[in-house]
Amino acid sequence: MLRDLTLLQFRSHRRAQVAFDGRPLAIFGPNGAGKTNLLEAVSLLSPGRGLRRAQSDELMRRAEAVGWKLRATTDAHEIETSALPGEPRRVEIDGKSAPQIALAQILRVLWLIPAMDRLWIEGAEGRRRFLDRMVMSFVPRHAEVTLAYDKAMRERNRLLKDMVRDPTWYHALEVQMAEAAGAIRANRAEALIRIAHAQDGSATAFPAATLTLENEGPEDLAAALDANRPRDMAAGRTLEGPHRADLQAIYAEKDAPAAQCSTGEQKALLISLILANARALRGEDVVLLLDEVAAHLDSARRAALYDEICALDAQVLMTGTGAELFDSLGARGQYIEVTEGPEGSQTQETSP
Ligand SMILES: Nc1ncnc2c1ncn2[C@@H]1O[C@H](COP(=O)(O)OP(=O)(O)OP(=O)(O)O)[C@@H](O)[C@H]1O
User: Where are the membrane-spanning stretches (predicted)?
Assistant: First the structure.
């Protein structure tokens, strides 16, 4: 469990400290106060660019622009991650420099943010990212395999753009891509099975989603890449493989594709999936970040969400503009009010 987090020169926070007591944490305050910035800080305790996919320099407080730092304590580890201006972010675990990917072994950080409300109707890339984050929560090594695939594909794309025709240049790269693709396919399949199991028979107020993967690419990717080089050369890039896969969801009860569901139904599907993801990770150190999750829900659904959150074996952080949004959570939650002060965001623990 995440016990403690300190933000230094991070976005609107000059210095902020949060001590988690294990109850779901409700963060409330007016628009622009710095609530999402707190969730973003927690999201950076996992590999990658966090929930806004920001560049490192965007994270440092503009007033001083001296870099940023986050310090966190879990039950078992001390994590520090920081960056100086113009430099990539660094990670230290228990005082020793570590690769970002090592963070995936400590906390499984999952999130739902308002930008994902359009996930089912926008392009496949966002859905693929959503899928791969779920997969990474089950198989932390998935991040490495995906990176290896992307790196080999970028090199192959460069050869294609340069109109290199000699097959010997391609062979090793295509074999690497095919090997990584096999692992990506297997990891994704495992994740979908685990999500389906977590939804089966669970008493939830949120609709079950049947997930399928489309356009995964051929089983024998090495042979397909070898055969389709002229086509890819004409396009200037690789046209098949796991980087083109698309995640689709069916609102099971209505047998309707997610993209044809109402805005509220689409949101409910996402909540259902993220709760299933957290349930499927029982036993791991799971942190669930729900940004403005209560806003679209009627009061009955909101109460149901809080009941489910309290029953989860996961640490949950939520934001909302007003404390009244968390009325039905009551004393089961921990509360932090965020306001905008002359020195940037101010955080203060309050009671319900
Ligand atoms: N690098 C930065 N330096 C200083 N302030 C920043 C930086 N990046 C963002 N901010 C400020 O942080 C605030 C936004 O914070 P955040 O997104 O956490 O708000 P919020 O409380 O979640 O608001 P809302 O309820 O509108 O979603 C804005 O005032 C923005 O100007």
Answer: none
